[in-house]
Specification:
Layout: H1 21-29, E1 33-39, H2 41-44, H3 52-63, E2 69-75, H4 81-85, H5 88-91, E3 99-103, H6 106-110, H7 115-129, E4 135-139, H8 145-148, H9 151-171, E5 174-176, H10 178-187, H11 207-226
Helix pairs in contact: 3-11, 7-9
């Protein structure tokens, strides 16, 4: 697939809301740094497109050269917050990361999960993480045809994205708004068809979109990490 154009991350509009003190301190001390990516196929990878965790790891290692930085992939295709929450102790806390990126929302829309169940399990999962010295970034759904068409699906997707945003605000954790960012790209003229990888489901992100999402996520994280303490 031909790349639709340069990657515009719109960092002024899609910045993180809170500091990342644990990741910042880990980078300052130059110790071994672990970041865990928890989620579904957006994390695990699908249809031959390299997912964001190894791309993010490469960007971190290039930016903070000489530090031992690992982005650990804990994605399992098809899962949503109810299943992922049950893996937090084994797949996140046991790895002692400085940062967890928890991707949620896609299968809630694609598989029509009960919104109340998604909200409740997401909130419980964040409560489990809260006492630990781990920064949290939630990442919501991709904006692809399977998630936004037909109109009823888009309406449900907006309900789920609002739910995720509300829980993030209630729990005081960062939200990386992938859904809104990808919609911005479409609104700016990139065809919706370029957002997915061309598989028959039209669900998973394309090479271009995956790469740009990774760059935007990295920019949002490093903006917070590199900011002065009083910023």
């Amino acid at each position: 697939m031909t790349a639709p154009g340069p990657c515009e991350t719109h960092l002024d509009e899609f910045r993180l809301q809170h500091r990342l003190p644990h990741l910042k301190e880990a980078l300052r001390q130059s110790r071994k740094i672990r970041i865990v990516a928890l989620g579904s196929s957006s994390v695990a990878g699908a249809d031959g497109v390299i997912p964001f965790p190894p791309r993010l790891e490469l960007l971190f290692r290039q930016r903070y050269f000489g530090r031992m930085i690992d982005v650990i992939n804990r994605g399992i295709g098809g899962q949503e917050a109810p299943e992922e929450m049950s893996r937090i102790e084994a797949d996140v806390i046991a790895e002692a990361p400085s940062l967890v990126i928890w991707q949620v929302g896609t299968n809630a829309v694609y598989k029509s999960y009960n919104p109340d169940e998604v909200r409740a399990t997401l909130a419980v999962g964040l409560d489990v993480l809260a006492p630990w010295p781990i920064d949290v970034v939630l990442m919501d759904s991709q904006f692809t045809t399977a998630i936004v068409e037909p109109a009823a699906t888009l309406k449900f997707a907006n309900t789920i994205m609002t739910l995720i945003s509300d829980v993030a605000a209630e729990k005081g954790v960062n939200l990386f708004r992938r859904f809104a960012l990808m919609k911005r790209w479409v609104d700016d003229g990139i065809p919706l068809s370029e957002m997915d990888d061309g598989a028959k489901e039209h669900l998973h992100t394309s090479e271009w979109a995956t790469n740009c999402v990774t760059q935007a996520l990295f920019d949002a994280i490093t903006q917070r990490v590199d900011a002065p303490a009083d910023a």
